[in-house]
Amino acid sequence: MTRLGPIVLALGLAMMPSLTLAQDDAHHPEDGTEHSAPAPIQQCQPMMQMMGGMMGQHMAQCMEALPEASRAYMGAMMGMHEPMMEAMQEQDPDVAFVKGMIGHHQAAVDMARAALEFGADAQSREWAQEIIEVQEAEINAMREWLSQREE
């Protein structure tokens, strides 16, 4: 139990700045009046830019040390984060889900293409080809669903 105390204290101290900041945002006005929340994309944009910058700075160095196949897989994974983060800011939960899944499925397709380019195992290559076919069909169906909802 004595080891847990310092950890809890450290976590509490680490969270204090964010708790303090939460009291001064548009959702917690000092005068007690209600304010409308900023548009989600505008509200989250600084955080997304900061995360992208941090990832970009550190990931470039990490990527250089990886084998070419791993760089391709990592590139596919990193490429899905921005579209998924943007999708999660949609007001309609169904649209958010579908847009997020498009980014997620596209990353699977990109990883599968890398597997076909760099992999040699017959079973792995078969799965990669199946993933490309199934996920691309689902992406197309989801895009069609989104286009019908926008009408």
**How would you sum up the major sheet?**
none
* Whole-number count of domains: 1
Helix content: over 70%
The number of helical runs is 5
Using the CA coordinates, give the radius of gyration.
21 Å
Structural class: mainly alpha
Proportion of strand residues: under 5%
**Beta strand count:** 0
User: Order of helices and strands, N to C?
Assistant: HHHHH
Tell me, what's the shape?
Answer: flat
Roughly what is the average pLDDT, rounded to an integer? 76
Query: What's the N-to-C terminus distance?
Result: 60 Å
Query: Which residue ranges are poorly predicted, with pLDDT under 50 across at least 5 consecutive positions?
Result: 8-38
Q: Can you describe this structure?
A:
The protein has five helices and no strands. Residues 8-38 have low confidence and may be disordered. The chain has helices spanning 4-22, 40-65, 68-87, 93-118, 122-149. It is 79% helix and 0% strand. It has one domain (39-149). The radius of gyration is 21 Å and the shape is flat. It is mainly alpha-helical and 151 residues long.
Brief write-up:
The protein has 151 residues and is mainly alpha-helical. It is built from five helices and no strands.
Topology record:
Blueprint: H1 4-22, H2 40-65, H3 68-87, H4 93-118, H5 122-149
Helix pairs in contact: 2-3, 3-4, 4-5
Notable features of this structure?
mainly alpha; 151 residues; single chain
